[in-house]
Design brief:
The structure holds 2 protein chains of 2 kinds. Chain A is an alpha/beta fold. Chain A contains 15 helices and 27 strands. In chain A, the strands form 6 sheets. In chain A, strands 1, 2, 3, 4, 14, 15 and 16 form a 7-stranded mixed β-sheet that branches. Chain B is of the alpha+beta class. Chain B starts with a helix and ends in a 5-residue tail after the last strand. Classes of the chains: A alpha/beta, B alpha+beta.
């Protein structure tokens, strides 16, 4: 009898436990935050990865986003942390239109402004903004009258599963020098920690129980922000291209996530929300990154594929369009001055207004035959997304630069030059081969106190090909100016000057050769 | 300044290896970063052989351009 009573009591206890757990579970709801960043116009899959199959691409990403949203259809927000449009021939050729169309189709809730959103100037920027069915957010960008930009909002509040979620956009103050300076000359980028506390109070007062900062600051600055500004539940980041595979919790109760770059990943953060207070209490183990695989067995979203197709087709046609003509074969060489080297360095000087241009021979990847030059030829010759870097060098630094270039004749190759003529003594190699140089006919060695405005590319500026003159000057605090993409500079020059007929004209001379 | 610039400054061979997919770059938390990722002052980077064990070399602390 006693055993029977004990058994009944045991069952009752179990039932009470189940009822209690169920009641507890009912008090928690889920908020799914889907996020991408630094998509950089990657609307087609990337087939050149170290992985065994293609990754990324708008149609594959879209299929994944729709599948993830279907798991929590009333409790999902979809966000972008910026730098969405610039970066591939397809997106660049249509000035970001296919990416906007993809984002509209997927019903993005908001996007932070990345530095590259300004790459094509304010006219194109405003055109993209008007096409977008979602708001561009930036709480820390103002014009010279300290007013927000027209059409740009500081934040947006959305409601999901009865929870009010505030999304605040933050742009990087680095934008001033990581896009074309002219494009943002009328804008000021305020420090995020100056604008966020007031704004967080405002959105909390408006009933938001979850505050998301959609940031284009980069992971390291996101961590600093989380420590400096209380009251942020989640920072959805971008800019540093970091694949944060497990959400970071640096303190202050803030969670930081970021989803790599180029659409390689979809970020999924599943927040647990206390249904009574609406406050985030943690996240589930489903949170992290999902690789966007683009193999034949992976799902694609047909509607998105159709949306981007016109632009993809247009780009294919564009690549075959002529952008100029050359009367001679454009030749490349690592060991000597070439007419192609002279052409590109002349183009760099013209585009930048610099006195001297320097470009690594290895950065010109293919020759171009006499006749029409197509955009495909330009892409093949300059496949890397290098951009111009302009800075001042002293006469001594310029001399050292030329000397290092001459030494490189047996290794990485010499630099191609415009605006300066140099003579080397090959018999002095592997020592210092520099003999003399002239700029505008003036002997460089007699102008020791003179400073020259020099344009190069970001590869050489960083110390590529073991040329350390630019790098050292930058490390010493020399100011630099970032210019246009090299490929664009080449095309612009061809459009203006075709047919071109560059020649080798003794800008780089080796004496005592073969001895 | 980008990750690739820090690599080139430190050792171009590392940059070449990362570009060709033989190595990849991680930050101080062990997260992968892309070559065109932006850097902040004081960021620490590490390179790791693709599919291999521990970090091998670090290109140091880049300075802001």
């Amino acid at each position: 009898m006693k055993t029977h009573v004990q058994r009944i009591m045991g069952w009752l206890a179990l039932i009470l436990l189940v009822v209690w757990v169920s009641a507890g579970a009912a008090e928690t709801t889920r908020l799914t935050i889907l996020h991408i960043n630094d998509f950089h116009g990657r609307i087609l899959p990337d087939t050149k990865t170290e992985l065994d199959k293609p990754v990324a691409g708008a149609a594959y990403l879209a299929a994944m986003i729709k599948a993830e949203r279907s798991k929590n259809p009333t409790g999902t927000v979809l966000l972008s942390a910026g730098d969405m449009f610039q970066g591939t021939c397809e997106s660049n050729g249509c000035q970001g239109a296919p990416v906007i169309e993809m984002m509209n189709e997927l019903k993005f809730d908001a996007m932070a402004l990345g530095n590259h959103e300004f790459d094509w100037g304010m006219t194109v920027f405003n055109r993209m903004r008007k096409k977008a069915a979602f708001p561009f957010l930036a709480a820390n960008i103002v014009n010279k009258k300290e007013m927000p930009l027209p059409g740009i909002r500081s934040h947006r509040i959305v409601q999901r599963n009865k929870v009010k979620v505030a999304v605040i956009g933050i742009a990087t103050p680095d934008t001033k020098y990581t896009t074309k300076p002219d494009n943002v000359k009328d804008l000021d980028f305020l420090k995020p920690e100056l604008v966020l506390p007031r704004l967080i109070k405002t959105v909390r007062d408006q009933g938001a129980s979850v505050v998301i900062v959609l940031s284009h600051l980069g992971e390291r600055d996101d961590k600093l922000l989380a420590s400096a500004v209380p009251g942020i539940d989640v920072i959805v980041g971008g800019h540093s291209h970091t694949a944060i595979s497990k959400p970071l919790e640096p303190g202050n109760g803030t969670i930081i996530v970021q989803a790599g770059y180029n659409g390689l990943y979809l970020g999924v953060l599943e927040l647990l929300i206390d249904a009574q207070t609406g406050r985030a209490t943690g996240f589930t183990d489903r949170s992290g990154l999902k690789r966007v695989s683009a193999g034949p067995e992976d799902k694609t979203d047909r509607k998105t594929a159709l949306l981007i197709k016109p632009c993809v087709d247009k780009t294919k046609r564009e690549l075959d369009k002529p952008v100029g003509d050359t009367c001679v074969n454009l030749v490349t060489s690592l060991k000597e001055e070439t007419n192609f080297g002279n052409l590109i360095t002349d183009a760099m000087r013209e585009a930048s207004g610099a006195q001297i241009a320097v470009h690594n021979s290895g950065g010109i990847r293919t020759k171009i035959s006499e006749g029409k030059i197509t955009r495909r030829d330009a892409c093949n010759a300059f496949p890397y997304d290098n951009h111009l870097v302009i800075m001042d060098l002293t006469a001594a630094e310029l001399k050292e630069l030329l000397n290092q270039s001459g030494k490189d004749v047996k290794e990485k190759g010499i630099m191609q030059l415009s605006g300066v003529k140099v003579t080397y003594d090959r018999s002095k190699l592997p020592g210092d081969p520099y003999v003399k140089a002239t700029v505008d006919g003036e002997d460089l060695d007699k102008k020791k106190n003179k400073t020259y405005r020099v344009v190069t590319n970001d590869f050489l500026a960083a110390g590529g090909d073991y040329i350390d003159v630019f790098r050292k000057a930058i490390e010493q605090g020399r100011s630099i100016e970032n210019g246009d993409k090299l490929r664009d500079v080449f095309e612009q020059y061809l459009k203006k000057h075709s047919p071109v007929k560059p020649e080798v004209e003794e800008r780089i001379v080796f004496v005592n050769s073969g001895k | 300044m980008q990750v690739q610039h820090a690599l080139i400054s430190h050792d171009q061979a590392l940059y070449d290896a990362c570009r060709h997919g033989e190595m990849h770059v991680e930050d101080e938390d062990g997260f992968r970063v892309g070559l065109e990722g932006a850097l902040s002052d004081g960021t620490k980077l590490y390179t790791r052989k693709q599919g291999r064990g521990s970090r091998v070399r670090g290109p140091g602390r880049p300075k802001k351009e």
